[in-house]
Amino acid sequence: MDFSVINDNIEFLMLGLMRSFQLAFFTIILSLIIACFIAIGRVSSRRSIRYPSAIFVNLLRSNPLILIVFWFFFLVPLITGKTLPEFHTVLIAFVVFFAAYFAEIVRSGIQSVGSSQVKAALSTGLTYSQSMRLIVLPQALRNMLPALVTECVIVFQGTTIAYVIGMREFLHSTSLVAERTVRPVELYLFAAFVYLVICFAGTRLALFLEKK
Amino acid sequence: MTLPLVQINNLSLRYGDFVALDDVSIDFMPGTCVVICGPSGSGKSSLLRCVNRLENFDKGDVIFDGQSLKAAQNISKIRSNIGMVFQHFELYPHLSVMNNITLAPRYVNGVNRDEAEAKAHKLLERVGILDQAKKYPNELSGGQQQRAAIARALALEPKLMLFDEPTSALDPEMISEVLQVMRDLARNGMTMLVVTHEMGFARDVADEVVFMDKGKVIERNESGGFFDNPQSDRAKEFIDRVLQKI
Ligand SMILES: Nc1ncnc2c1ncn2[C@@H]1O[C@H](COP(=O)(O)OP(=O)(O)O)[C@@H](O)[C@H]1O
Ligand SMILES: [Mg+2]
């Protein structure tokens, strides 16, 4: 085995890794924001809010991510007659998909806080949305941090799905180098190592947060 | 003629099919301290929660300070005039004692932080835990937590204070420090509705006692009369039972 191919192509590979990080980063930020609203909808006392939120979550969680990506890649341009850059297409699909998963995490976080805290907050004259923002969500966030970190690792691994529509994320870049240099063993070992390190770091962080 | 601060008119509340409050009508005058007692499940907590509309009642109405709660559009504003103290304190665990107290003044009344903290300072002094201001609720004893919760409820200068079994979750040695704070409040003329099994407090501090059973108000009397000369059999039985326990 000759690992110098890695070194020779490191710039190209790191570009792919950066792309994966970018996709994961924006997916996590955007889907988490949307997830907060959906989660609050899921615990709403109003059916007209609760049911659509539940449908959204269950619909998306019952489909594989790759299908959601196909939807946005093939069907949305057909319907709207417009094509977006592939990064944006994948990002939208990822945000929609992972918002459903994050929403479930946020929902269980909210439910871990208990309705008596809301009653206490309301009794002091805070509005419902102030009570959510100032009292429930900060506590929920703390309770759900380990689950959130774990989900972030899953998002990062999920970025490989972008490969199927030709986006140059890390795995795609690796495979391009592997084909060109005919050194697939070294390159895929390297890729496995990189995913392992990131996954391991995330898992340790989740464990650490759980203990705290 | 003074008007009642709280008027409860034909109030009914159900949880599903279960009738928790059954056509309750009663009113409370400003400046009085009223103890509400009765067996567990008789609807005492439900009644308190109707007084600031934490429960949406089915029938009847509560008039607080001349305003109908049923019709109220600005219920948050009304609630800010009614302090509430809970059995399990319900302090916000992620905020320091100081921030627990200043939160509502800042976000509800738009008071700036310095002013809110100066006010909180005075309140903490009044309930005797000024030295705990920077701590988090889980670093305090139960009695200290409940006193902090009282300070939080007082921070908006409410016209009415609701207490739902404020000492039931406390270790015996901490009960008196909380009752002392409540006694001072009553002496200073605060209007208070207190659900409690502390019969000593009811006799010595309360002006009146209301006895509830099965979602109804059975009896109402000035506190001396209630203990010495209960009118209903159910109240007699209840008094015998709680006094025996002590
Ligand atoms: N949120 C609720 N949902 C259903 N039933 C409730 C709820 N809150 C109280 N109850 C029931 O209503 C009755 C009165 O409760 P409560 O007002 O808490 O009584 P008390 O404070 O006198 O013990 C009880 O039987 C209780 O089980
Ligand atoms: Mg109760």
Give the arrangement of secondary structure elements:
The complex is a heterodimer of chains A (212) and B (246).
Chain A: H1 4-8, H2 10-42, H3 47-61, H4 65-80, H5 86-111, H6 115-123, H7 128-158, H8 170-181, H9 184-211
Chain B: E1 6-15, E2 18-28, E3 33-37, H1 44-51, E4 59-64, E5 67-68, H2 75-79, E6 82-85, H3 97-108, H4 113-126, H5 142-154, E7 160-164, H6 172-187, E8 191-195, H7 199-204, E9 208-213, E10 216-222, H8 223-228, H9 233-245
Adenosine-5'-diphosphate binds next to strand 2 and helix 1 of chain B.
Primary descriptors:
heterodimer, A: 212 residues, mainly alpha, MetI-like fold, 83% helix, flat, B: 246 residues, alpha/beta, 6-stranded mixed β-sheet, 4-stranded antiparallel β-sheet, 10 strands, 38% helix, globular, binds adenosine-5'-diphosphate, binds magnesium ion
Strand order of the largest sheet of chain B: 6-7-8-3-9-10
Given the structure, what is the number of helices of chain A? Answer: 9
Major sheet of chain A = none
Radius of gyration of chain A: 20 Å
Total number of strands of chain B: 10
Shape of chain B: globular
Quickly give the CATH architecture of chain A: Orthogonal Bundle
Counting DSSP E segments of at least 2 residues, the number of strands of chain A comes to: 0
Query: What is the CATH superfamily label of chain A?
Result: MetI-like
* Gyration radius over CA of chain B: 18 Å
Largest sheet of chain B, if any? 6 strands, mixed
